[in-house]
C-alpha cells in the first residue's frame, strides 16, 4: 500500500504537522479506515465521493 507509506513519511516530516491528509480509495471496510488513520490520514473517503462529504472535509480542513 503505497499511500499508507507516503502518509507515514509525510507525518514524520517536521513541516507536515498541520497538513490534512485525505485518503481517497475504493476500500471502505472498518479495517481499511483503521489503516488510514494509523498511517496519519485525517479523513478516509470511499469512491465515489459525494459532494457533501467532500465539502465537509474541506470545511473541517479550513478551521
UniProtKB/TrEMBL annotation:
<keyword id="KW-0418">Kinase</keyword>
<dbReference type="GO" id="GO:0016301">
    <property type="term" value="F:kinase activity"/>
</dbReference>
<keyword id="KW-0808">Transferase</keyword>
<dbReference type="InterPro" id="IPR001789">
    <property type="entry name" value="Sig_transdc_resp-reg_receiver"/>
</dbReference>
<protein>
    <submittedName>
        <fullName>PAS/PAC sensor hybrid histidine kinase</fullName>
    </submittedName>
</protein>
<dbReference type="InterPro" id="IPR011006">
    <property type="entry name" value="CheY-like_superfamily"/>
</dbReference>
<feature type="domain" description="Response regulatory">
    <location>
        <begin position="1"/>
        <end position="62"/>
    </location>
</feature>
<dbReference type="GO" id="GO:0000160">
    <property type="term" value="P:phosphorelay signal transduction system"/>
</dbReference>
Amino acid at each position: 500500500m503505497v499511500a499508507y507509506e507516503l502518509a507515514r513519511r509525510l507525518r514524520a516530516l517536521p513541516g507536515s504537522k498541520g497538513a490534512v491528509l485525505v485518503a481517497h480509495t475504493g476500500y471502505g471496510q472498518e479495517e481499511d479506515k483503521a489503516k488510514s488513520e494509523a498511517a496519519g490520514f485525517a479523513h478516509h473517503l470511499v469512491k465515489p465521493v459525494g459532494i457533501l462529504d467532500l465539502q465537509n472535509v474541506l470545511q473541517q480542513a479550513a478551521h
